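Now for a specimen:

…
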Amino acid sequence: MIVERLKKEDLPKYKALIDEAFDGSQELSEYLKYDDNSKSYEIIVLKEKDEIVGTVTMYKLDLFTFSFQPTIELFNVAVKKKYRRQNLGRILINYVIDYAKENGYKTIHFTCLEAEKEVHEFYESCGFVKAESRKYNMYL
């Protein structure tokens, strides 16, 4: 298996993984806005031959207002169902951790639904701790 930055030509395969992992997503036309040269975010994929079997998106926040910055915020951590429980999620998380350390980031954070207890256990086994904060959203 290889870990690499998502290539634009792999967007349909990436969307299929996201659809499976999160029970649907946006139209492919929205994914076509992806910039595979962006400096502020990277979509990382784990590939078995030509199949995308896992992914994580890193948003890099380089503001220096608080001591936990610069930071990386994770989104869309996902592994195809038939590949779960094979430590592939850990490969992706370790990739992000190594990237953060090598590039001077101070923290890595993400949001996880409260009901996803099994996922919480996975993240905690990777070294993450539950933050004492509250998330707010405004949907427009």
The radius of gyration is 15 Å.
